[in-house]
Amino acid sequence: MFGIFSTQSQKVRRNAADWLELAEKVHHYRRDVLPEAEWLELQGAAGKVRALLKEKADIAKLKLGIDDLEAALRRSGGQHYPKSSLVENVEFFVVAAIVILGLRAFYVQPFKIPTNSMWPSYNGMTGAVFASKADEPGPAGRVLNFIAQGASARRLDAPEAGEVLLPIGTSDGRGLVSYNQIPGRSWLVFPTKLREYGVFVGQRVVTFKVPLDFDMDWVFRDTYFPGDTRSFAEIVTEKIAQGYLVEGTINTAKGPQQVRLLRTGKKVQAGERVLSFDILTGDQLFVDRVSYHFVRPKVGDGFVFRTGNIPDLNGDQYYIKRLVGVPGDRIEVREPKLIRNGEPITDVAAIRRNGEREGRYGGYFNGRPDLRYPKSMLFPGQEITVPSDGYLTMGDNSANSLDGRYWGFVPAADVVGRPLLIYYPFTKRWGPAP
């Protein structure tokens, strides 16, 4: 550790000891296959260096002894010495991979927030909307935003003049604007799923793709209804009641198809921007996988778990939610507050702020009956008890979170850990996880 403060003599003697260790390794691994002459040469050169170290010979003699030993090792070392740079690099990366996999499996695991179910405590992928071309970052700004926030740009121009219309009709819980789910690639290599949207301008349509988990509703709201802080669903409901919905027929590969289009009121000329936004990467965390082996999870923890044993979630993934109930707790939602054992939770900042609808926290909402989720619960007036072998979790963004209100409890065996640190992107959110 303190080698930089060593004398030249100490450095040479340490070097000699390293060569002797290598000679011992070659001797043990290759003594059955070494010709007698090479074996004797190696033993003699190693013995000479050992003797020089013992008698504390001067540096010049020790260096000569090391040179002789190195020459003997070159002739008898086989695959152990000398090693090519390729072999050394492969060994380094193999060892590094083993260490990283060990750390990931048992101690610290990286985790990326994909959705905004925990907003505003944690950000999933979010959209930065630009009102005009003048507001868009230039080439240098795009590079900086990519490095700092993982930003990827989406820019759509009008193919002709007309009013911008949004197709309405999605009913799978991922937004109100219609889209097609298509196969794609992540980082141009890894298979993934994407959503392809079509925005109508006049009699033409322009399409674009986003990741499957990206919430386009916020982008549509901020682009076409700027300044309105209501949810996109509330805005659309109002616009439909006001007669902003039109119906028409479009030609597709499958033939004529009926569509419902929401008028946005935004009219553009050919070549003008129809839509312009950046997709900013979700918060990336380090998750502590160790603590829960020694201490019990407590209410208010950020809570990472696997979903493989939760039947209604159909797959084994990693989720992050807020832990709101431990075994034996009685939980009720009295909008906007979360009630635990008869009292509002006030000693956890995120839960308290949610209950008071403070800042960007929107409050807690009751569960709703849903045919897709037969375990739905926490309806108005309903109190549930957390079982002895499970935990109850909810998203901080209660209005937009698929959580324990719908699919039930997290089995104790599937608990992974709690978030430690937001390590990316490099924004003011960087640092200890809330």
What is the CATH third-level topology name of the largest domain? Umud Fragment, subunit A
DSSP summary, beta strand count: 21
Summed up, the domain count is 3
Order of helices and strands: HHHHEEHEEEEEHHEEEEEEEEEHEEHEEE
CATH top level of the largest domain is: Mainly Beta
* Overall outline: elongated
Structural class: alpha+beta
Strand residue content: 25-35%
The helix content is 25-40%
Total DSSP helices? 9
Name the poorly predicted regions: none
Query: What's the overall average pLDDT, rounded?
Result: 87
Rounded Rg:
32 Å
Describe the protein's architecture and organization:
The chain is of the alpha+beta class and 434 residues long. The chain has 3 domains: 3-76, Substrate Binding Domain Of Dnak, Chain:A, Domain 2 (Up-down Bundle), CATH 1.20.1270; 110-115 and 283-432, Umud Fragment, subunit A (Ribbon); 126-280, no CATH class. It has 9 helices and 21 strands. The strands form 4 sheets. Strands 1, 11, 12, 13, 18, 19, 20 and 21 form an 8-stranded antiparallel sheet that branches. Strands 4, 5, 6, 7, 8 and 9 form a 6-stranded antiparallel sheet that branches. Strand 6 and strand 7 (204-211) form a beta hairpin. Helix 1 (8-30) packs antiparallel against helix 2 and helix 1 (8-30) packs parallel to helix 3. It is elongated, with a radius of gyration of 32 Å.
